[in-house]
Amino acid sequence: MEVNGLIVAASERLSLENDNGFLFTVYNADIDIHFCILASNISTAVWKNLVVNHYYKFTNLKVGALQTSLGGKVILLKTTSCSTYAEIDHLQNCKFEIAENLKAVISDPRTTILSGNKSIIGSNLITYQGFVTKVKDWELKIYELDSKVSLYTTFNIYCAVLEKGSEVIISNVHCIKDSMGSVVLVCCGLSSVREINPIKAKRKIFLFTNGSDFLRNVLEYFLNVDNKISSKKLSLPEEYFSEPHRCFPFSENQLPTYCDVPYLSDILDEVTANISWILICPKWKIYINSQENLVIIGMLYLSTSGTFYIADQTLELPVIFTQECENCLHENNIIKDFENKDIGFMIAVQEYDIIFENISCKNEDFGVAEYHGVKEILSKGVLSQNSVITCILYHKEYKDVEILNDGISRKKLNATLSLIVRDVFFQESTISVYLPYISENIFGLLPGAVLELHGFLCFCSQNSNFYLRPSSKFGIEIKKHLKIVDGRHSFPEDDANLLFQQLTKISIGNIFHLPFNRICFILKIISAEVFSVCKNCNKNSREKCCCLIPRKVKVKVSALIDDGNQPLLAHCCGEAAKKLLNFTEKEWQDLASYVECSNQPLKFSDKKYNKIYTYLSFINQIFSAYCSSKATCRKLLFNCIYIPNTNPPVSDINSVWCKRISDIVTYDHIKLNFMKLKNIGKDNSFD
Questions:
Q1: Is the pTM of this model over 0.70?
Q2: Which domain of life is it from (predicted)?
């Protein structure tokens, strides 16, 4: 059978029982009929090139039927192994022979839906042609067309990823508006997206605050909601053939009645109920909670002090971006999206770390603080214990510093962070400040930031140049920016424009530590504890807990490991601790059952092992003997966060917090290192 006409609708790729295919709706004006064609049994790569609003001639078709998921049946024309198509001019479009009874059977009455009218919930169905000017999110398939229109192909599973520079034609796409009044196009099963010219683009987070139906469906589509209350998604044929038009992104009867998206306060309440502190020094302890299941939904914004926050109606929390996740934007790259400080972005975060710190303080009398400028320091060359230096940051770099050791000059192998600061009023007065190398990434302190340096000492180099180094108690406080007025500040005129751009951004500095993967050998277990806590109040002793609810068993471990360059003190808990202790699932269940039934913790300490061994219970003796044996000494792959040593007189060993510990898969590890070495994939340092 031969037919011809104008294609007025095309589906995305259908997943059929034995094949893939496409649905097309064709209109022939000469005989006034809409009919559907199911293209299958032939390479889908051929038929996906058909474009809506173009005229085609089809040959060797047959009458067939398509079963829908609800048991319905649609009579249409189907392709055969001999079917072909050819694009024709609208003048070549003409009548074709068709029996009246067959015409009545295959005729599709959906003439109004495909003519730009509204669907049942009020969004227009339109056809749009334009160029992809930005890829906002690869995974959610969110794009920008012609620098003004946003396109969501999120719900079109088989829609190819579009690329920047592509010319696209989108037909039967929902047209709505966001909170700023900008046009947003949302594709459904009736929509057709055809791409022409591809070029690469970067990712970006996008704010969408209007159209609650669509936003709630995005949450239902990507988050874990209660299966009992979430509705069944419409199949693609059901969306395509629905009359009036219904689809998953906008169908009210498909909306979940409740999306379980926790507030920030709920997440913190749950995490704080299971805190297991790691003591770093007598006055500082930390806890790091790695989350993969509790999704954070909130507004990301940049404060006037230059700190990123995520907020909802219950809390606002400071945020630090890292380069660990290739799907995340690093802080240095995302700042440009916040040039307008009044703009925030609604984001969803799947994997993140929550860091808690408990810092105690003892008041000490240092007397009245003495404030000095850089010029004054250069003239005196001496600083008292209470001195505070007010200065302006001008330059920052890493360098090797020569130091004297018994009169012999030698170079330090590790780099030191060097800051060059200037006097607030006298531009010619500069001095170098050397800080300990504690992290691979220190950023956020921009040129022009006004700093107050506390607890720094003044030294004189071999070349009779003064420089500053921190004492055991030091701090850097960022005050505010200086404005460039009449070009009279202490900055080169060539840098004025660049400096002004920097000064209008942020002044606050963040010093933090990125996770890294490293193969380490476990030297010995320092301490280990298996204990039970109340699920409600998290107390680890029944005498202090009055809750009549079951308890749960937890484990935490500290071990001495070696990465080939230096020994490290590794802290971990949960699954990472079980892996470090080399427990099988049965062994862990036996220990957990004992602790649960006896309400007695199992403890091991390398320092006290020989002294208290005979006083321990029989099971605790076995546990201690196991921890002190070589059964745990082996090589593993550690995913860690580096924690600098803050108490060097006691120990020169730095600590790491282990997020994950896994066996070494040689092939995967070599491949990862090769990719890092060639700068493929993640932009991480080579471990």
A1: no
A2: Eukaryota
